[in-house]
Amino acid sequence: MKKIDIFHRRICRFIFFVYLCTTIKPKRLSSDGAIAQLVEQRTENPCVPGSIPGGTTENQRVTKVTLFLFWLKCRAKQDRVFSNVLPEMITVGVVCYKYKPLKNGELPIKIRICKDRKTRYVNLGVSTKSEYWDFSKNQPKANCPDKELIEKLIANRISKIRSQIVELNADDKEFTATSLVQKVSNKSKPISVQEVFMEHLKYLMEMKRTGYMLSIKQTFNSLLEFCPSLDIPFSDMDVIWLRRYETWLRKRGISENTIGIRFRNLRMIYNLAIERGIAKREYYPFSCYKVSKLHQATAKRAIQKEEIKAIINYPVKDKDFYTILAINLFTFSYFMGGINFVDMAYLTDKNLIEGRLIYRRRKTGKLINLPMQERALLILKEYSDKNKPYLFPILSPSHKTEQQKLNRLHKVITHVNKSLKIIGDELNIPIKLTTYVARHSYATVLKRAGVTTALISESLGHSSEKVTQIYLDSFENKQIDEAMQYLL
């Protein structure tokens, strides 16, 4: 701006000087006459610098000087307009950079960005010979090899740069030619699918969402089996890629609902990548590939009261540790609101308050408040040990890290469900017996006891357990206390 102001001042001084020289009017001559007289004086004094050569008529002299003055005024006016517009102007075009030929003799093709009288270049990574480039039109000639590909590359890059300019202007952000070049020529390696998975798993670990983390990790391990390397950009994960993965899962005999879980987790990771600007929405494959089709109605996992009684009264004398633990956990879950295995594992004395069991579900964070049942108290008394922080012998102080706790939970639930399956076969239970059957049976018995569907779900086997938990949260303590009298 300082250089422009200095230039303006010099132009103004020069115009003013010429104006004074051309308006010397002895004996009140008109301006044209004064100019003519001054021109005549210059003609008559050849020693005067800038004198007009002889042989030129007076009219021609006057016309030339007038035109010269008019040209100076127009130039000054044009320069004032130019100085106002230039700082805001920006041009984007292509050039074949002939000043620095490559070693093979070809000339690099670049995008030229001009802003505020500053010129910067963006390398396209392609080059051509000078005989294949039309320097007057700044485009490849008709006989240029790969002409169409070069033109497409140029058009795409110019379009990207102009889109970036529009975005910066729309956000009212200041930028220079240099900063724009740096922004559009960012050559950093794109974040891969594997990196997003690993970062999200780390986040879930820090948030202690071990159950959900395990589901994401299972999906990640499944993808690694299908595709040995996930060091790929999200754009590679198109509809064809997803269909191939689905076919691979089906050939391995994976159930419909498990396939649905895998794809919902994968969709969540893709959405996370879009949210972070890692993946582009225009490449989003789940607009065409519908995950909702990967769903199969879950069979009810509730059993009758007679069957529940048979499990609760199963003889455990001389049985092994995990068989006894399996019966006790199933019974405690049934009598205490269908509490799941993980929540039972983390229960401590602090969760027992004035004859009630109060805890937050680790999966949803919902607060659960239930009256302690007599049978549940007998089970806790059996495992009571003041030297141990947990109510059940699942976790211990030796399990310090989240991974150690996760490994221990996985080990115990595997043994417990294996023992329950054996017990179910002995008692001729029509479904596979697991700790989750106690949760479903609890809900079903409450409904049959007169609790409305609006308060508790019939089966807990719907798409989201949060919906079921919302129903349970709407219960008043008195309603639950009275309803739980009908469990046996």
List keywords for this structure.
17 helices, 3-stranded antiparallel beta sheet, mainly alpha, 8 strands, 9% strand, 488 residues
Percent of residues in helices comes to: 40-55%
Give the number of domains: 4
Give the count of helical stretches. Answer: 17
Derived structural class? mainly alpha
Weakly predicted, low-confidence segments: 24-36, 38-56, 79-87, 457-463, 469-476
CATH topology of the largest domain: hpI Integrase, Chain A
Distance between the termini: 89 Å
> For the residues shown, what is the average pLDDT?
79
CATH architecture of the largest domain: Orthogonal Bundle
Molecular shape: elongated
CATH class of the largest domain: Mainly Alpha
- Strand coverage percent: 5-15%
Largest sheet: 3 strands, antiparallel
Give the helices and strands, then pairings.
Elements: H1 2-22, H2 31-44, H3 58-85, E1 90-96, E2 107-115, E3 118-128, E4 133-134, E5 139-140, H4 147-170, H5 177-184, H6 193-206, H7 210-226, H8 239-251, H9 256-275, H10 305-312, H11 321-335, H12 341-345, E6 352-353, E7 356-360, E8 367-371, H13 374-382, H14 402-426, H15 435-448, H16 465-473, H17 477-483
Antiparallel strand pairs: 1-2, 2-3, 4-5, 6-7, 7-8
